């Protein structure tokens, strides 16, 4: 489908609209978080060697966390279901995002407590931002992507094909470029990324809350569709046709033909009896 046709389809279907919200919200959220975090990372590690060393450790930790989450994802789906699995990624972004932006915006009151651990507010923000990126990316690969693909399963074939096409045409590019457009607008408005950080934190909060609301709504619809599927399968299994057997074929049951004696006339007539259904 084209762009306009995809937009019309997204507006017409609540289920696909909620699914599209998940995709767009993830793209915007991860972009806002990652760019802001890397700006603080460069301020903490201005040396190229220190920066490269930290990013190497970051990549290793991301791989380990992703592999671990891949092993745990099956247990999460079996134990808690689709709804909980779909809410883990935005919940991780919400909790770590609050900690990250709080350290950036209100780091001075935490400085004495952080100094006891040999940390500055900036370094603590860098570590929290690294945790945020590590866990959000590992949750994305192990939970978010499987949840997104599983959400198409209960749909009918036409809605499934058109919905996936609409999300691929509109939502994936919008999610990837939306965060960059928001940051560019904020930088042009407030002069720098540092000055726009409080507003980026507020935008991230709104987007993640909308993401959680869409996941909750989609969970309700997904569960209802799966129950309808299971009910239809049970009805199909229960609808067993029992064959009708005649007497001369089975040896028992109703007779297919026989003689009937009429006591009034004394005549016996032969008539065909109707087989009974068992």
Short description:
This protein has helices spanning 3-12, 14-44, 48-105, 107-115, 121-150, 157-190, 193-238, 247-250, and strands at 258-261, 268-271.
Report on the architecture of this protein:
The structure is a single chain. The chain contains eight helices and two strands, in the order ααααααααββ. By secondary structure, it is mostly helical. It is globular. The two termini are 54 Å apart. α2 runs antiparallel to α5, α2 packs parallel to α6 and α3 (48-105) crosses α5 (121-150). The chain folds into two domains: 3-238, Growth Hormone, Chain: A (Up-down Bundle), CATH 1.20.1250; 247-278, no CATH class. It has a two-stranded antiparallel ribbon. It has helices at 3-12, 14-44, 48-105, 107-115, 121-150, 157-190, 193-238, 247-250; strands spanning 258-261, 268-271. The longest helix is centred in the first third of the chain and has 58 residues, at 48-105. Residues 246-261 and 268-278 have low confidence and may be disordered.
């Amino acid at each position: 489908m084209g762009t306009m046709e995809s937009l019309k389809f997204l507006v017409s279907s609540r289920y696909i609209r909620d699914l599209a919200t998940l995709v767009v919200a993830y793209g915007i959220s991860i972009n806002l978080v990652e760019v802001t975090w890397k700006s603080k990372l460069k301020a903490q590690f201005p040396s190229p060697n220190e920066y490269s060393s930290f990013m190497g450790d970051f990549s290793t930790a991301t791989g380990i966390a992703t592999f671990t989450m891949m092993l745990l994802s099956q247990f999460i789906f079996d134990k808690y279901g689709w709804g909980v699995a779909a809410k883990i990624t935005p919940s991780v972004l919400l909790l770590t995002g609050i900690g990250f932006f709080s350290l950036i915006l209100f780091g001075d009151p935490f400085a004495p407590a952080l100094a006891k651990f040999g940390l500055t507010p900036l370094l603590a923000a860098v570590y929290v931002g690294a945790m945020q990126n590590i866990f959000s990316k590992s949750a994305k690969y192990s939970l978010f992507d499987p949840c997104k693909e599983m959400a198409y399963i209960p749909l009918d074939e036409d809605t499934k094909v058109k919905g996936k096409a609409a999300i691929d045409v509109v939502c994936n590019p919008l999610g990837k470029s939306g965060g960059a457009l928001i940051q560019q607008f904020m930088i042009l408005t407030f002069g720098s990324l540092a000055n726009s950080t409080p507003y980026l934190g507020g935008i991230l909060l709104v987007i993640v809350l909308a993401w959680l609301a869409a996941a909750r709504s989609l969970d309700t619809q997904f569960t209802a569709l799966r129950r309808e599927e299971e009910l239809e399968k049970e009805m199909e299994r229960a609808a067993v046709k029992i064959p009708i057997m005649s007497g001369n074929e089975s040896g028992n049951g109703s007779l297919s033909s026989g003689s009937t004696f009429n006591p009034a006339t004394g005549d016996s007539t032969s008539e065909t009896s109707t087989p009974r259904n068992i």
